[in-house]
Amino acid sequence: MPDIRLQHVSKAFDGTAVLREVDLDIAEGSFVAIVGKSGSGKSTLLRIIAGLEKASAGQIETTDRLAVAFQEARLLPWLSVVDNVSFGLEGRDRKKVALDALVEVGLRAKADVWPLTLSGGQAQRVSLARALVRKPEVLLLDEPFGALDALTKLDMQNLVGELWRAHGWTVVMVTHDVDEAVRLADRVVVLGDGTVQEIVPVPGTGPRDPDDPALAPLAGRLLRLLGVPFAGRRSLELETSPTRLASSLSPVS
Amino acid sequence: MTIDVDAVLVASSERVPAPAGRASGNLLAPFTPWLSTLAILLLWTAVSAGGLIGPRALPSPFDVLAAAWELTANGRLPAALVASLARVLAGTALGLVLGLGAGLLAGYYRVGEMVVDRPLQMLRAVPFNALVPLFIVAFGIGELMKVSLIAVGVLVPIYLNTFAGVRNVDSKLVEVGLVYRVPQRLIASKILFLGALPSILTGLRFSLAIAWIALVTSETVNTNAGVGYILAQAQRFVRTDQVFLCIVIYALLGILTDYLVRRLEGRLLAWRKSYDGR
Ligand SMILES: Nc1ncnc2c1ncn2[C@@H]1O[C@H](COP(=O)(O)OP(=O)(O)OP(=O)(O)O)[C@@H](O)[C@H]1O
Ligand SMILES: [Mg+2]
């Protein structure tokens, strides 16, 4: 019995189709990554699963007990960091739960500050902590590590990967980083032209060693599927930001 | 160890810390906003001392102080202040409760908006002193009329800003509450109300400014107590010094309430990181 099942799901905004007849089964306890170009409808798909957006057509089976970490951190600026993490939780130990989660994301020291004083990466980690403390059946992550430096990113990937293993959650993670996708996921869904282009299974269980030689060909294959022209290079991301572009154009030192 | 005077001064100001080097450090820094006021006072003293304009038309600041002393000594001023403050407090409290309630109702619920928004938008279009004759007919010429007039004046800005504040809360933040299945009351209090608070406090400032204006207006109608009464009497007996005194009192009360609201904003909106001017 899949945890989440999408059948012929379509979505159009003002007559423009964003998703077309998407079929997707996500098994309970699996880790699915969704990759696709910017604007390909990844966030929209996640929002439909979360029940925040109504599909224009098709059927969706999903669960109530889900938590989302949005693409933007979406912290409530008028609540302290720890109050953001524990927001809406019940129980007397809610503060302790939130503080523990902040320890996990390396931000215990920031528990009492205002969110507007956080850096982008810190805010993103707080938002991740807020999702993790919900102990959800399904965890939906929309580019959860986009604003993080390489080192913190690896840390956070390990954190999510290990929590996933330990708790048997179902995780759906949108990302534009194919290396990240093959590090963590069981299956990578390639989204293009508003529909599922291909589902690439990844052998083994995440979080995998980033140096694992089996990952490089998979990542390369994903990049080709996404139509990246010079997909020979590893660790090239789909959305080449100016700095990335510069570094990928400069000769290897 | 040296004490950082800058830090002390900045910390005591109610806003978010100013950029470094802004209140470049001397002990007079907190008084700089008052310099222009002081200049006006000096000019006033100079002009009245110059004798070009007689004390009938322009009493000197010392005449006004003397008038204050005289009216305090005979007990009229304290009694008037008590009467005026009681009026303004009652009217303001009533107006704030009604305006805030109506604003939240209209902000939270579409039905609420349909019920209260149109009438209040119409009320807003009416200058409230145009309501005086109506209120006299409805409530007589006693305290009820005065308090109601102040309440209506106060109600409009707080309503408008509460309503707009709730509706301007980023829907992305509301989505967080929805997707985490947070109880409705938490969405209402921790997302919508707190999100609307900056706007509500702006409304409060406008409301309190209007409260004093409404007080003066209401006290021009058949009053036998209050600052407005002293003003009316002073006008009748051409006591320009007392007229000035009343104006100064209204100004001071206005500044005082503004100061209190700013303090409140400093406390409640400490999370904000907004542009502070340069
Ligand atoms: N509420 C909306 N109204 C109108 N158009 C929308 C809305 N939400 C999304 N879209 C459009 O749908 C398309 C897909 O958007 P979506 O946010 O799902 O992309 P994405 O794959 O998440 O992109 P990115 O990687 O840049 O985050 C875009 O063209 C976007 O303009
Ligand atoms: Mg997106």
TrEMBL record, chain A:
InterPro entries: AAA+_ATPase (IPR003593), ABC_transporter-like_ATP-bd (IPR003439), ABC_transporter-like_CS (IPR017871), ABC_transporter_ATP-bind (IPR050166), P-loop_NTPase (IPR027417)
Family statement drawn from the similarity comment of this UniProt entry: Belongs to the ABC transporter superfamily.
Species, as recorded: Kaistia hirudinis
Cited Gene3D superfamilies: P-loop containing nucleotide triphosphate hydrolases (3.40.50.300)
EC class of the enzyme, as a word: hydrolase
Listed GO MF terms: ATP binding; ATP hydrolysis activity
Record EC number: 3.6.3.-
SUPFAM superfamilies tied to this protein: P-loop containing nucleoside triphosphate hydrolases
UniProt name for this protein: Sulfonate transport system ATP-binding protein
Keyword Nucleotide-binding: yes
UniProtKB/TrEMBL annotation, chain B:
UniProt superkingdom: Bacteria
GO biological process annotation, one example: alkanesulfonate transmembrane transport
PROSITE patterns: ABC_TM1 (PS50928)
Transmembrane segments: 31-53, 88-111, 123-141, 147-166, 191-215, 242-261
Alphabetized UniProt keyword annotations: Cell membrane, Membrane, Transmembrane, Transmembrane helix, Transport
InterPro entries with a match to the protein in the record: MetI-like, MetI-like_sf
Gene Ontology terms: cellular component: plasma membrane
Keyword DNA repair (UniProt): no
Compartment(s) of residence: Cell membrane
Ranges in coiled-coil conformation: none
Membrane topology, as annotated: Multi-pass membrane protein
Residue span(s) of domain ABC transmembrane type-1: 81-261
Entry function: Probably part of an ABC transporter complex. Probably responsible for the translocation of the substrate across the membrane.
Family indicated by similarity: Belongs to the binding-protein-dependent transport system permease family.
Protein name as it appears in the record: Sulfonate transport system permease protein
Naturally occurring in which organism (per UniProt): Kaistia hirudinis
High-level lineage: Bacteria, Pseudomonadati, Pseudomonadota, Alphaproteobacteria, Hyphomicrobiales
